[in-house]
Specification:
424 residues; 2 domains; mainly alpha
Length: 424
């Protein structure tokens, strides 16, 4: 039987495989008997390079609706390169203060590898999005498999050969360099086309999304700071261990949203694109909602077992974070981003962060750290509702046209009922 996969499914599989690879590497590194300090250097490397590449998501979200336009691929490459050069330059000039801040070590021994990774990693993400924009699901899966196998080998082989964590981190840099080199033949004649005004148009659409991405990623740090200000270090650890969203929900929902952006690049394609988005949401809902409900119902049992009994206090936070599935499975944003209304998305993100902080401060004295988690759930749902209202008011598009409400609403009610049962 021939298995067919489209670009949405291919990107979802790739994102899940990427998460699985990182998780498997964490397990293997822990089993290799490495010192916790050494594993911490690996984790700091990943976190620091990701923090210094926050613009990638915004640039790719603004690229995908324009993927079919002449000059779009070259414009995206130039913008990614420019931002990487700026980030690497800032890191080089202010390494004495930035590196300790990002890694937690005053004398981080792998700063040179981190600098090289920041310079290369942004551009290395373009290849997979070019394949999405060109609607090439099979090459995307093949590319993803090779990239993840290379990443695994780059970490484990140097350690097995006795080259230490430095060798492993330079191995990751080599993989990023290989992905950048592979981008050049991938672009081909089409990718090197230059269109006057394409770069400035892309930047005008992209800069609000950079702010949106930055605001979205800062919310988790703000939550941590609020908890840390009221509780001690142990309380913060309990919060962070509970504030874990279902990867299946987060990764597959983001992959669906991003892969659909190319379909909403032209208004005449919207009716068919909304039907596809509705069908994809239906399939994902059958997977995400039941899984989230089972995790909520079993959290009081498995959380102390997986971690230790002290982390039973993390369960209320975890159960609230499972409710994020309700907002994750709403997809009004592809229409807004596809139409280029990125400034509106930025202002909604500002409002989401303000609502999150305000609700957290109001609920924290009465509900503790669970109040901070509840504020995150409410603020994220408010963001999606604002997007959906915009689509209705601005374009007259009903939510039911791109969301299977006959399935979404009962599933949401079921998830809330499971949370109420598990909590009370």
């Amino acid at each position: 039987m021939k298995i067919r996969v489209d670009k949405v499914g291919a990107l979802q599989l790739y994102q899940l495989a990427r998460f699985g690879t990182l998780l498997a590497l964490n397990v293997v590194l822990a089993q290799m008997g490495l010192e916790t300090r050494v594993i911490g250097q690996y984790e700091s490397f990943l976190l620091a390079s990701s923090a210094l590449s926050f613009w990638v998501s915004g640039l790719m979200q603004s690229y995908l609706p324009r993927a079919s336009q002449p000059g779009a691929e070259l414009g995206a490459a130039l913008l990614l390169l420019a931002h990487s050069l700026v980030a690497a330059g800032v890191l080089y000039l202010f390494a004495g203060s930035l590196v300790p801040l990002l890694t937690g070590e005053d004398d981080y021994p792998h700063a040179d590898a981190l600098l090289a990774q920041v310079l290369l990693s942004g551009l290395s993400f373009l290849a997979e999005h070019v394949l999405v924009g060109r609607d090439k699901p099979v090459p995307l899966l093949a590319y993803g498999a090779l990239a993840l196998l290379g990443q695994t080998a780059a970490v484990l082989l140097p350690l097995a050969l006795g080259w230490g964590m430095g060798g492993a981190l330079w191995g990751l840099v080599a993989v990023s360099a290989a992905r950048v080199l592979w981008l050049f033949p991938l672009l081909g004649r089409r990718g090197w086309q230059w269109q006057p005004g394409a770069l400035s148009e892309h930047w005008r659409a992209a800069w609000p999304l950079l702010g949106t991405t930055l605001l979205g990623s800062s919310a988790q740090y703000v939550d941590g700071l609020l908890v840390a200000a009221r509780f001690d270090g142990a309380g913060l650890a309990l919060f962070r261990y509970g504030a874990k969203e279902l990867p299946l929900s987060y990764l597959m929902a983001n992959a669906l949203s991003n892969s659909m952006l190319a379909d909403f690049g032209r208004r005449e394609d919207w009716p068919a694109a909304m039907r596809r988005l509705r069908d994809k949401t239906r399939r994902l809902a059958h997977l995400v909602f039941p899984t989230s409900a089972l995790l909520i119902l079993g959290s009081h049992w498995f959380y102390p077992l997986v971690f230790n009994p002290d982390f039973a206090a993390s369960v209320p936070v975890f159960n609230l974070y499972m409710l994020l599935a309700i907002s994750r499975l709403l997809f009004p944003q592809p229409l807004i981003l596809g139409a280029g209304r990125t400034r509106f998305a930025l202002w909604v993100s500002v409002g989401e962060l303000a609502l999150n902080v305000g609700l957290s401060l109001a609920l924290l004295p009465f509900w503790g750290m669970a109040g901070v988690a509840a504020a995150t759930v409410v603020a994220h749902l408010a963001q999606k509702i604002a997007f959906a209202l915009h689509n209705r008011v601005h374009w007259g598009i009903r939510l039911a046209e791109y969301c299977p409400l006959e399935l979404y609403l009962p599933y949401s009610a079921l998830l809330l009922a499971c949370y109420a049962w598990a909590s009370y």
